Every structure is written in structure tokens, then in C-alpha cells.
Amino acid sequence: MCSPAQYQVAYIVSQDLIKYSSRLPSNVGRSILVHSLANALGLLSQDYSPHTRLQVIKPGPATLDDLSMYHARNYIDAILLTVEPETESESVEFGLEDDCPRFSGLPEYVRLVAGATITAARVLRFGYANISINWDGGRHHAQKSRAAGFCYVADCVLAILLLKKTLPAPASPLSRILTPNQRRYRVMYLDLDAHFSDGVSQAFYSPANLKSKQVLTLSVHHAAPGFFPSSPLAQLPFEPSTSFDPFTLSLPLLEGASVKTFANIWPHVECIKDIFNPDYVVVQCGVDGLAGDPKCKVFNWCLDVAIEGSLGWCVSRIVNEWKGSRKLFLGGGGYHSPNAARTWSYLTSIILGKPLSLSMNIPDDPSHSGFPLYAPTFTLDVPSGNMIDKNTAEYLADVQNRFERVSEILRGVLQSQ
């Protein structure tokens, strides 16, 4: 990785991306709040930080070939329809109901969100930046042939598939000789959303084929009966069996997870990262685990980079301490839109090496939409609440024991490759 003075950060956004992302039924208007706040805070200026150079990059819409890297063609055809289907069963078959209804602009939304994340991945893959950001991405519940959990397109999966590809060999004869011996790229996917990354984890889950794994997924989330999504893969790693895949990992936390709990489990995350030694790290930064989220209400996380175990601290560790890999930061869940805007703006400032003060006032700028929505504090902070942290010492000891065993297994598998 380059030194901090040489960091290049790509921020992926366009007016069309904002327009159609703001129509997402679960997060109406969120995208425009996010990017207008980032702009009002000066984060999108190339002069914001002396340590980094930020480039705003306009993405193109994903093509059919791009979407077909993962999604089934009949599903692509269904979500790109510009008219309502003739029968209700068509919508049911592809999950286009309940929490994933059709909405005006769905085809454009799918193409633009996927295109933005693919653009972010390509920027890294071809070395134009060390870090790329797409806060409108991170749709981690979408399946190969089905929408789910407010997610219509599996942009995380598309990015991973692209990043793990070997770059085309240069034209020189010497390069053609050396290329076959090059280690295949490894991609680590880390999910910090309060919900399990079922769409991404399931896409790469393959317990019968461990010898050539290039992708490791690790989801830190809440899991409980009745909490979406329900999946055996959402549970703590268990004793090795035919269904165990050490490259598809989950670290579920109990209600009220606070900075103390995240500080406790973070060494396990970094241990897995060190063993896997990825070339790329894709981080899904869903913000529904922050205190005050109106739909999730399960964690008591906060932002302050100065507090060990906070979301800001975790992102700072990834940016500043995870050497040797390029990083892609994505959005995700978060149903208090002003808090999502606060958070992703704050995380952008951390990524740029110049964290904003959480006590600063939200700009009352004519170019910044939604200023009244930041009431009652009108400051940048999203503080923790009073929720009791139910992650006991006994539970966290169980997590440690299981991840120590997983680490041993993962190290052995990688050494045998």
C-alpha cells in the first residue's frame, strides 16, 4: 500500500445515482441527504485533506453482461422490466413484493447502483486508487434470482467477482512467462451491518471446495429467532463437519452490543484478516447498528474514532493499519436517514485522514438539503444510548474459543493450497 501522502480515494457518485437511490422504498430521500451533507462539509473537495487526494468519479450504469456475472438472466429480465408484470406470480417468484416492491425507476436504480459498485471495484483493480467509496451500494441480501431485505441487486457479490479476477497479462513475452506463477487475488468481505450478510455469504459458501478459495466472508451482526434473515450460516462457527466452511464466517452479537463488545471481538476480525492476507478488502458499513435506528433497535454502537470499539475506530483501523490491501467501502442498512448521512460523512473524513469533529454543527447551507431533519441536536454526532449490553463475559469467551479454533483451521487450509 502507498504511504498516507500518496493515498488516492475515489468517491463514486452522480446525479442520476442520487436521484434513483433516493427512490428506494426503504430509504426514500436518504441518498440526497448523504451526498449533500458530504459536499456541504467540504469532503468532496480535493483540498480537504493534505494526506489524500479525493477524486469524484461518475459511474456508468451496469450492462447486462455486468449483471450476468452473478444474477440469473430471468431475474435480470424481471427487475429491468419497464412495465408491471402480467401476473402476480411473476413478482412473487423473484421476491418483488412485501419489503422489495417494484417502484418507479427500479430498472435505472438496479443498473446505477450495480454500476457504481462495479466502477468502485474497477478503480481499485486497475490501480487508480487505494480506496474507493460507494455509499449507495452494500445491498447484501439480494440473491442470485431473488430480491430480499430491501435489496434488488447483489452489488457486493459483483464487486468481489470482479476483484478476484486476475488482470489481463501484459503484452511482453517476459510478463506472459511470469503471470501463471502469480498468486491469485484474495478478497476479504467484512460486513458491519446489524443484519447478517446472507446474500453475500451464501454466494461464496462452498464447504466441499476449500483448496482454491479466493474469497473469505466475515459478517458481524445480530442473530436471534425472528430477526431477519434466518440462516444457519448466521450462527457462530461450530465444530468442523461436512457443512463447515472456514471461508464463510459469522460473528453474531447479542442485543445491546456496545463499543466495549466491539473492542473485545475486533482482535478476532484482525486475526482472520492476517491469516487470509487479502489483496482487497470490501467493507459493508451498514449503519443500522448505531443507537437510535428506528427499525433495527438491537445495538448501541457509536461513531467517535477516539473511542476504542466504535464504528469510526474500526474503520480507522482498516484504513490505517490493514497494510497491503486496497479497500472498497460500501453503504448498507440504516433507517434514520439523517444519521446515515452523519455517519457516512464522518467515515469519509476518517478515510481521508482528517476526521471531523463530532461536536460540529450541521451546515445550514442553501445547497444542503434537509437541514431541519437534523433536529434536535443539529450536530454531527450519533451518540450511544442507554441500552444494556447483553454480550456477557461468558458469551465473549465462547466467541474467542471458537474463533481460535477457526483460525487454526483456516491457517492449515491456506498452507495446503
TrEMBL record:
| Gene Ontology BP, a term | heterochromatin formation
| Top class in the EC scheme | hydrolase
Output the InterPro entries linked to this UniProt entry: HDACs, His_deacetylse_dom, His_deacetylse_dom_sf, Ureohydrolase_dom_sf
| Residue ranges of every copy of the Histone deacetylase domain listed in the record | 48-350
Key words of the record? Chromatin regulator, Hydrolase, Nucleus, Repressor, Transcription, Transcription regulation
Instruction: Give the coiled coil ranges.
Output: none
User: Its GO CC terms?
Assistant: nucleus
Q: Where in the cell is it found?
A: Nucleus
Q: Does the entry feature the keyword ATP-binding, yes or no?
A: no
According to the lineage, what is the superkingdom? Eukaryota
State the family named in the UniProt similarity comment for this chain: Belongs to the histone deacetylase family. HD type 1 subfamily.
Protein name in the entry: histone deacetylase
Organism per entry: Lentinula guzmanii
List the lineage, top down.
Answer: Eukaryota, Fungi, Dikarya, Basidiomycota, Agaricomycotina
